[in-house]
């Protein structure tokens, strides 16, 4: 007896037959019908109980009359109902049942007899107090596909033979025991239906005049249309939530395929047109069409149906559903029943074999169109589902595809703008950092993972006197506009650095520029175009570094033998605020000090505070082990690995590392110049002697001419005190003459009869470059000469 069914099961003869024909179950009703006990038949072939040949049983259910052998030696003609069942955890089997009769005549006043509405269009069945079918009307017989007189006396689970039938029977028992009516909705294929329907089962107790419950009346209503409408609405809502979660074309196409399988199709492919030169897709599509597979999804693991792998292209000829739908600009439904599918497959042998192998019988090709542009096509195919695509299926597929098309177009436009901005950004950043005697440097730039390319930049600028400027900045915003603004600011910084402005003065001029850019943008108020910046100048002779920042993160300094520390620099206002001062800080750096400059994208990570990020940065900058200092490229990679999440940063990241070098005092010579032009010759002699000690005799003649011109000009036009300084490294010799006058000399072309005015022209022709830098005490005229040190 079933634990959910408290009544006598012997009113039904029940047997269970394994797929190999062996009897595995035999109840008391079967013993009463044929006389055989369970011990006598279980484990033996069921065919031994059949008189003559056993009937053929195609499909999942069979009903008919069979002659069976009685234990007494006689035969018995019995009507049988057989269901094929496949348990989730075992082999298949057949459930064979037949009723043993209602057990005698019934009174005309029996409420069970008068309950069934035989002529009602609503399917009605009445079950007695043992939950066995007493009677059903013609509509119910049509639904289950069996007449009522054959199944009378069977339980609902025995008539239906499905898990949904057992669920309905449990609700029947609740109605019988509680006397309370219930409404239950289920989705199943009834015996008389070719496809599954949605049913609303209304169950009510059958009572007599005194209110005693004698059974249950079951009325079944077909609510398939309402059910499918709700399913379609749910599918559209799900598509609006799941499709377009990112601005990635491939991810969006895959989301479209995932939504449609298995709700609408058994296999879905999404193919897009390749736009020429990265532009917009063609306005008109003509066959044959070349499409790139972007995504697909199948009911089968691994998507074995896909002939084209994602990322690869395929050519679709005319008469193919893909080409026809793209050319026509509308949905094309093709099926094997109408012959449309066969006309195309006859041209493609490999595809025909694949369709035959997996049983595809219907396809629906939906163009992916957005903003008047055709982007590609989504092809939905059915194999397991026996019904072809209906008009309602076409509507829902077009609705989902239209939503996905807008997301694909947005992702395509975003990707194109991102690639353009990234190309612009990388073209504006330095291709390689200059090699200087003052420091060695390494850098990294990573665009944001999702927000788009921003305006982060870095630079290393060689200044006069072997000094080096280092700059890191971050423009507010993302996209091409931010990259373009970054390019303008980087150019401005290089221009201002070329005239040797102090860091705080440079930021002041840069702030004025950002204010003007904000006004030119038409926003109407300062601060609409904003940026942060940090500017530092390192002098390898004095080994002093001067820094100033405008709202930018402070750098981290790692001494050669000490722990990392964040420099305590005045923050300063961001660029673009206008009218506020900037303050510079000067500090002494020992040989081998590591400077770390970065933008805030390095520290900004979801789920982590800034203090934790700063700690991770300091730990990553520390040299692992007592060995020689690690290469800066290796340190850059270690920092990015420690601080950035696997999926990339939410913001752009610019990182600049620099390890300082000091210039030995032996490579610097300084003289105080008297205010007497007659003493220029002795100065030239001292310079020649110094070059000889540096083994730079070949550079003596040129250097003496340059020194003579610069010193003479300083004596004639400058203010005392005057100082001459020579600096040299492996390939450069620098001459500097300083005085306390703030008037800068100008290069001009002397006329033929002029007695002077050719000195600076001579200097410009003899040197690599020359220039003037202003200092708090006055100015310095400098000139650089290229040299090759003697062996």
Account of the 3D structure:
- The longest helix is centred in the middle third of the chain and has 38 residues, at 391-428.
- It is built from 20 helices and 31 strands.
- The N and C termini lie far apart (108 Å).
- Helices cover 31% and strands 28% of the residues.
- With 791 residues, it is of the alpha+beta class.
- The model is unreliable at 749-757 (pLDDT under 50).
Q: What is the strand and helix layout of this fold?
A:
Blueprint: E1 12-18, E2 23-26, H1 28-34, H2 38-41, E3 61-69, E4 75-85, E5 93-99, H3 111-115, E6 123-127, E7 133-136, H4 138-144, H5 148-151, H6 156-160, H7 163-178, E8 182-188, E9 197-207, E10 213-222, H8 224-242, H9 249-260, E11 267-273, E12 289-298, E13 313-316, H10 321-328, E14 332-335, H11 340-345, H12 349-358, E15 362-370, E16 373-382, H13 391-428, E17 439-446, E18 454-462, E19 468-478, H14 480-498, H15 503-520, E20 531-539, E21 544-550, E22 556-558, E23 565-566, E24 585-588, E25 594-598, H16 610-621, H17 632-643, E26 653-660, E27 668-673, H18 680-693, H19 700-717, E28 722-728, E29 732-739, H20 759-766, E30 769-775, E31 778-786
Antiparallel strand pairs: 1-2, 1-5, 3-4, 4-5, 6-7, 6-10, 8-9, 9-10, 11-12, 11-16, 12-13, 14-15, 15-16, 17-26, 18-19, 19-20, 20-21, 21-24, 22-23, 22-25, 25-26, 27-28, 28-29, 29-31, 30-31
Helix pairs in contact: 8-9, 8-13, 9-13, 13-14, 14-15, 16-17, 18-19, 19-20
């Amino acid at each position: 007896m079933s634990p959910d069914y408290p009544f006598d099961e012997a009113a039904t003869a029940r047997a269970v037959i394994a797929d190999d024909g062996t009897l595995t179950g035999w109840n008391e009703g079967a013993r009463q019908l044929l006389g055989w006990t369970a011990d006598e038949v279980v484990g033996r072939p069921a065919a031994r109980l059949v008189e003559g040949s056993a009937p053929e049983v195609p499909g999942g259910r069979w009903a008919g009359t069979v002659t069976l052998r009685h234990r007494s030696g006689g035969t018995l003609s019995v009507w049988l109902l057989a269901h094929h069942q496949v348990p989730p955890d075992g082999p298949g089997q057949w459930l064979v049942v037949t009723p043993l009769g209602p057990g005698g005549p019934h009174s005309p006043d029996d409420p069970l007899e008068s309950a069934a509405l035989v002529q009602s269009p609503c399917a009605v069945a009445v079950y007695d107090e043992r939950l066995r079918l007493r009677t059903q009307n013609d509509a119910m017989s049509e639904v289950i596909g069996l007449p009522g007189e054959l199944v009378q006396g069977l339980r609902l689970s025995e008539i239906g033979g499905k898990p949904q039938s057992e669920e309905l029977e449990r609700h029947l028992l609740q109605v019988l025991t509680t006397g309370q009516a219930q409404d239950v909705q289920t989705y199943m294929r009834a015996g008389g239906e070719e496809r599954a329907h949605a049913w609303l089962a209304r169950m009510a107790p059958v009572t007599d005049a005194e209110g005693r419950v004698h059974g249950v009346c079951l009325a079944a209503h077909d609510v398939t249309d309402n059910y499918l409408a709700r399913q379609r609405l749910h599918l559209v809502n799900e598509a609006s939530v799941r499709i377009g979660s990112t601005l990635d074309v491939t991810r969006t196409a895959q989301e479209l395929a995932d939504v449609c399988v298995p709700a609408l199709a058994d296999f879905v492919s999404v193919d897009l047109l390749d736009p020429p030169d990265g532009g917009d897709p063609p306005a008109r599509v003509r066959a044959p069409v070349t499409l790139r597979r972007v995504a697909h999804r199948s009911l089968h693991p691994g998507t074995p149906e896909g002939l084209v792998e994602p990322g690869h292209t395929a050519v679709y000829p005319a008469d193919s559903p893909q080409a026809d739908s793209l050319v026509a600009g509308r949905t094309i439904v093709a099926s094997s029943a109408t012959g449309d599918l066969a006309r195309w497959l006859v041209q493609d042998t490999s595809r025909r074999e694949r369709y035959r192998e997996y049983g595809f019988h219907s396809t629906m090709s939906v163009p992916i169109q957005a903003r008047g542009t055709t982007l590609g096509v989504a092809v939905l195919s059915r194999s397991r589902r026996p019904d072809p695509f209906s008009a309602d299926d076409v509507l829902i597929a077009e609705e989902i595809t239209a939503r996905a098309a807008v997301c694909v177009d947005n992702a395509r436009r975003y990707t194109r703008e991102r690639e353009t901005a990234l190309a612009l950004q990388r073209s504006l950043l330095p291709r390689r950092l200059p090699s200087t005697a003052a420091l060695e440097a390494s850098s990294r730039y990573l665009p944001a993972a999702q927000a788009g390319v921003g305006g982060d930049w870095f630079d290393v600028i060689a200044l006069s006197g072997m000094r080096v400027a280092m700059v890191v900045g971050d423009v507010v915003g993302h996209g091409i506009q931010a990259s373009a603004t970054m390019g303008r600011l980087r150019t401005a910084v290089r221009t201002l650095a070329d005239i040797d402005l102090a860091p705080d003065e440079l930021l002041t001029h840069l702030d004025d520029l950002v204010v003007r850019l904000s006004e030119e943008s038409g926003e109407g108020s300062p601060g609409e175009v904003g940026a942060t910046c940090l500017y530092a100048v390192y002098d390898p002779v004095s080994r002093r570094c001067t820094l100033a920042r405008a709202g930018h993160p402070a750098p981290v300094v790692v001494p050669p033998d000490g722990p990392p520390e964040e420099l305590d620099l005045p923050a300063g206002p961001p660029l673009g605020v206008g009218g506020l001062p900037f303050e510079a800080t000067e500090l002494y750096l020992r040989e081998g000090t590591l400077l770390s400059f970065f933008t805030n994208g390095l520290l900004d990570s979801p789920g982590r505070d800034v203090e934790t990020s700063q700690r991770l940065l300091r730990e990553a900058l520390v040299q692992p082990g007592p060995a020689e200092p690690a290469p800066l490229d290796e340190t850059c990679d270690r920092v990015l690995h420690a601080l950035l999440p696997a999926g990339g940063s939410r913001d752009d990241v610019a990182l600049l590392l620099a390890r300082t070098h000091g210039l030995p005092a032996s490579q610097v010579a300084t003289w105080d110049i008297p205010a007497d032009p007659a003493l220029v010759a002795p100065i030239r002699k001292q310079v020649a002697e110094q070059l000889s000690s540096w083994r730079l005799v070949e550079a003596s003649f040129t250097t003496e001419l340059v020194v003579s011109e610069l010193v003479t000009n300083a004596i004639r036009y400058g203010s005392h005190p005057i100082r001459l300084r020579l600096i040299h490294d492996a390939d450069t010799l620098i001459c500097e003459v300083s005085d306390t006058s703030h008037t800068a000399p100008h290069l001009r072309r002397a006329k033929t009869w002029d007695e002077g005015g050719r000195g600076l022209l001579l200097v410009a022709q003899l040197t690599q470059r020359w220039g003037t830098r202003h200092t708090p005490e006055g100015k310095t005229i400098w000139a650089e000469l290229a040299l090759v040190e003697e062996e």
